[in-house]
UniProtKB/TrEMBL annotation:
Protein name: FAD linked oxidase domain-containing protein
First and last residue of the signal peptide: none
Organism: Caballeronia hypogeia
Record keyword Flavoprotein present: yes
Pfam family, one: FAD_binding_4
Stretches assigned to the FAD-binding PCMH-type domain: 49-228
Amino acid sequence: MQTHDSTAASGEQDPLAIESALLAELGAELVTTSADIDPRYFSAYNEAPGRRPLALVRPRSVGDVSRTLALCARLRQPVVPQGGLTGLARGGVALGGEIVLSMERFAGIESVDAAAATITVRAGTPLQAVQDAAAAAGFTFGVDLGARGSCQIGGTIATNAGGTRAIRYGVMREQVLGLEAVLADGTVLSSMNRMLKNNAGYDLKQLFIGSEGTLGIITRAVLRLRPKLGAPATAMCRVAGYDAVLRLWDRMRAVTDVVSFEAMWPSFYQYVSTHTPGVVAPFAGEDGFAVLIEFATSTPGGDAAQTLEACLADCLEAGLIDDAALATSERQARDMWTLREGLAIDELPHLVNFDVSLPTGELGAFAERCEAALRARWPDIVCVFFGHIGDGNVHIGVSLAELDDALADELDRTVYEVVQEMDGSISAEHGIGVLKRAYLACTRSDAEIALMRLLKAALDPQRILNPGKVL
């Protein structure tokens, strides 16, 4: 596994001197000293606590963020920006010698502009709060994730999160009109554009979207809103193989009401349908792919359930699907989504998650090649595939009876070599962080990486922002 390579500028400062300087500049209300930091601030998702930070700063304003970074720049003190800690690449955890800057207190909806269909929010605002505010104003927000209640807007922008609605509205990048970020030296860069069209020079917000806090810390954003969706309709289909999944997707994407199109490979569906307590699976775990489809319409008077039912009837008649179950209650729809979210696989021993993307038409061949490569090395491996499909994103869950750092590295190499051979991406929606840093070249060319390093050197010459992540 990738370890911290001491690329940050600090490491020689006295920790007590750092604490004292932070307290003197920011006060005890904003600063928590190392011994008193709750372990959740240095624990990656689904992992035991890691390295304790030198201090925790929880700003309440943009000015607090600016003062923190200006001080850290003077002290050459590394900083790890932190959102809801729902990412799977350890991008928000300290590796040793940093302070953590958590945005959780700088939260809230600042305004909704109904005429422009925008919402202005603070970085620490949970995604679900943005969704609720959009709904209250008569709109829909275009991104939805399983971690909606805990992930923060700043983090979703910093990782360019995707989620289950990307086929309808695009990923997080497509939702951001304007952005405010604080640079490594404390400079506040405010580009809070509220217009759909603005070609006045470089689009500077794009530097920070997907940069995982390595170029600046996102503090506020102007987000696009969409026409309000009616009640969703959800169904699960059984199809024979991946070619049938593609034919079904080709049929469904012609319907403007489709919001989500999620596929579960046979081994994944068999596992979650038998290991998810309290959930009634619509089909037995026999061979075949399970496909979850959600429709929702913004047309006044439109009936998504009626449209989806008619589509499924046509698909059955055309032989595109073998069986279908249309959810007739919120409970049934929730059960279908619970199966797809796959929380049951978290109980597998030494689970390693992968989040990759390839063109949709190649995902079936990728899964076959990837599983064959893994089983050639570990015949008894548990290997399951599931994902968003319509946007080319597949998740892989891999479990071995025993796992150490050397085996984890070998697992990564095995999967990412297949991704590289097929010209895919090693990260679809969780970023690079620490875990994928050593494999960035599997996805990016030497010229691209050189330009990334040039941008990093220009915006963060002391390398104090999220050191050891991405590059």
